[in-house]
């Protein structure tokens, strides 16, 4: 179904539940998506009074980090919906399982700090566009951290479920070139609080 990370050395603590699929979309599809993303009214990621360097647009649901709650957002647009369907097929999910898409722009020097995704969401998939990034994972092992880095190439898709999603934290260090991503998420349950 999907490319597991079997090519990696056995010493790497590969997070269970992490999938990676290079060339999930074509170069032409990437160009079309980049044009759409550049045309979006992206807004700086807001955390209380702080603004992140990355800019975002949410569809389906929007997570309000200041008030710690989900809010309804515009439906996934026509140009994103077919890719959500492709992700559902890739992951063996039922049609319509992906109900949220987050578009993110990382200008050069922007990144995202260590975190796990919100518990209101379940499975998480990320389509990388424009440039590569180091997608880092860490988890506590006694007094130390186990670490793992996925080199997420443009046009690739990663998927996080199981431990990769719920135990490991992930982050992206400052990117070296303009990068966009579309993060697709399923919902943890139907009761959205
Ligand atoms: O840009 C990405 O691929 C990751 C985004 C992410 O981790 C998040 O929005 O929580």
Key terms:
binds 2-oxoglutaric acid; seven-stranded antiparallel sheet; alpha+beta; 13 strands; four-stranded antiparallel sheet
Q: Biggest sheet: strands side by side, in what order?
A: 1-11-8-13-6-3-2
State which percent range the strand residues make up. 35-45%
CATH topology: Jelly Rolls
Helix content: 10-25%
The secondary-structure class comes to alpha+beta
| Average pLDDT for all residues | 91
End-to-end Cα distance, whole Å, is: 33 Å
Shape call = globular
- Helical run tally: 3
Top CATH class: Mainly Beta
Instruction: State the total count of DSSP E strands.
Output: 13
Written description of the protein model:
With 193 residues, the protein is an alpha+beta fold. It has one domain: Alpha-ketoglutarate-dependent dioxygenase AlkB-like (Jelly Rolls). 15% of the residues lie in helices and 44% in strands. The protein has helices at residues 27-39, 81-91, 162-166; strands spanning 18-21, 43-47, 50-59, 61-64, 69-72, 98-106, 112-115, 121-129, 133-141, 144-152, 157-160, 169-172, 179-187. The strands form 3 sheets. A 7-stranded antiparallel sheet has the order 1-11-8-13-6-3-2. A 4-stranded antiparallel sheet has the order 7-12-9-10. A hairpin with a 2-residue loop joins β9 and β10. The longest helix is centred in the first third of the chain and has 13 residues, at 27-39. It is globular, with a radius of gyration of 16 Å. 2-oxoglutaric acid binds next to β6, β12 and β13.
């Amino acid at each position: 179904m999907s490319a597991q990370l079997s090519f990696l050395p056995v010493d790497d603590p590969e997070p269970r539940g992490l999938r990676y699929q290079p060339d999930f979309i074509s170069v032409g599809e990437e160009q079309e998506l980049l044009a759409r993303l550049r045309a979006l009214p992206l807004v700086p990621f807001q955390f209380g009074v702080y603004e992140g360097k990355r800019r975002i647009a949410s569809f389906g649901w929007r997570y309000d980090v200041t008030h710690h709650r989900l809010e309804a957002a515009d439906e996934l647009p026509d140009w994103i919906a077919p890719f959500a369907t492709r992700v559902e097929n890739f992951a063996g999910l039922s049609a319509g399982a992906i109900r949220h898409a987050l578009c993110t722009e990382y200008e050069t020097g922007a990144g995202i700090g260590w975190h796990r995704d919100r518990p209101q969401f379940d499975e998480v998939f990320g389509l990388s566009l424009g440039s590569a990034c180091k997608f880092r994972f860490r988890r506590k092992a006694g007094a130390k951290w186990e670490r793992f880095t996925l080199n997420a190439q443009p046009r690739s898709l990663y998927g996080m479920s199981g431990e990769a999603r719920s135990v490991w934290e992930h982050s992206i260090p400052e990117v070296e070139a303009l990068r966009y991503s579309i993060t697709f998420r399923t919902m943890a349950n139907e009761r959205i609080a």
